[in-house]
């Protein structure tokens, strides 16, 4: 549930609205995310996707199939300026290619691509690197929301030729047919849905050249803002990653960044994270890699990550991933 990319509050607000009718209080869904009520009232609030995933994990604990419903509610208007840039594109293909240019603005945890397969185009979501406990939820949310975006852009239902999912069929797979009216395949090699390639040339009903240019320019600037902040965050991550066995602490890191600890805390707060969250994130990434290689015993991995006791590492890994380190090994 740890990830350093920045995103908006769109998905979080959607989760809160979805559970509002069931009487679930905001506090229960926001628990552990570091997001407060004041953040929800600000249109320019930026959060990290680890915060977003904490809220989603709370939602999944209440309803395992919630990804399908949330995805159905993620209309193209949920994506702000990018949504309007997509709606005003000349053709369906132009809109999809524009969306692929700005994954940060989509807030996706996947690498999206359009894969040609004869007369079929597979809209594919791959390269998922987040904790496996949230994999099915994220696939459902991603593919259903992409299908909804396609329908919104066209002003009609995009006929699908097939849908594939890497995970096994869940016990609620009948609900998939409500979202994907096409042949379904589980335990496939990719997560994707297919449509006839002729749709790429379909003119969009809300195409507007002037508005599209203005919105595309604003998307470009917003993307620079997102990526600029992430570049600064990336420098911090590189410094910390090289020192996991003996983490420098907030004071030591600030000195390496040539700023005061107070300034560093403020910048991290603006990014929606903290020193400890970044340290945990990097430890988790390294732990997954070392466990996947299967060469080092768990106590040595704990030492390399700066844990004084193996038990502390085990507890931390369960908190990060939902499973014990031994269960994560191949």
From TrEMBL:
InterPro entries, per the entry: AraC-type_N, Homeodomain-like_sf, HTH_AraC
Transcription regulation keyword on record: yes
Keywords, sorted A to Z: DNA-binding, Transcription, Transcription regulation
Entry annotated with the keyword Lipid biosynthesis: no
Superkingdom of the organism of origin: Bacteria
SUPFAM superfamilies (UniProt xref): Homeodomain-like (SSF46689)
Entry protein name: Helix-turn-helix domain-containing protein
């Amino acid at each position: 549930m740890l990830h350093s990319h920045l995103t908006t509050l769109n998905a979080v607000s959607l989760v809160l609205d979805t559970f509002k009718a069931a009487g679930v209080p905001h506090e229960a869904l926001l628990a552990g995310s570091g997001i407060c009520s004041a953040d929800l009232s600000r249109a320019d609030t930026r959060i990290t996707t680890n915060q977003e995933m904490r809220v989603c994990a709370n939602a999944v604990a209440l309803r395992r199939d919630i990804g399908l419903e949330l995805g159905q509610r993620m209309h193209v208007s949920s994506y702000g300026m990018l949504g309007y840039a997509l709606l005003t594109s000349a053709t369906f293909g132009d809109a999809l290619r524009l969306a692929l240019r700005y994954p940060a603005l989509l807030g996706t945890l996947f690498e999206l691509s359009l894969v040609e397969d004869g007369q079929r185009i597979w809209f594919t979501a791959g390269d998922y690197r987040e904790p496996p406990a949230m994999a099915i939820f994220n696939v459902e949310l991603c593919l259903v929301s992409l299908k909804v975006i396609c329908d919104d852009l066209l002003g009609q239902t995009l006929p699908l030729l097939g849908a594939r999912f890497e995970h096994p069929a869940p016990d609620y797979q009948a609900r998939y047919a409500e979202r994907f009216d096409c042949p379904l395949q589980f335990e496939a090699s990719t997560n994707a849905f297919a449509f006839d390639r002729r749709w790429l040339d379909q003119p969009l009903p809300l195409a507007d050249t002037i508005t599209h240019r203005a919105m595309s320019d604003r998307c470009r600037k917003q993307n620079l803002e997102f990526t600029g902040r992430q570049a600064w965050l990336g420098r911090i991550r590189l410094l910390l990653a090289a020192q996991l066995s003996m983490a420098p602490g907030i004071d030591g890191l600030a000195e390496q960044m040539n700023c005061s600890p107070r300034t560093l805390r403020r910048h991290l707060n603006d990014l929606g994270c903290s020193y400890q969250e970044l340290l945990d994130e990097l430890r988790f990434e390294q732990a997954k890699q070392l466990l996947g290689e299967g060469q080092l015993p768990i106590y040595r991995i704990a030492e390399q990550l700066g844990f004084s006791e193996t038990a502390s590492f085990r507890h931390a890994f369960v908190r990060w991933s939902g499973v014990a380190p031994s269960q994560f090994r191949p």
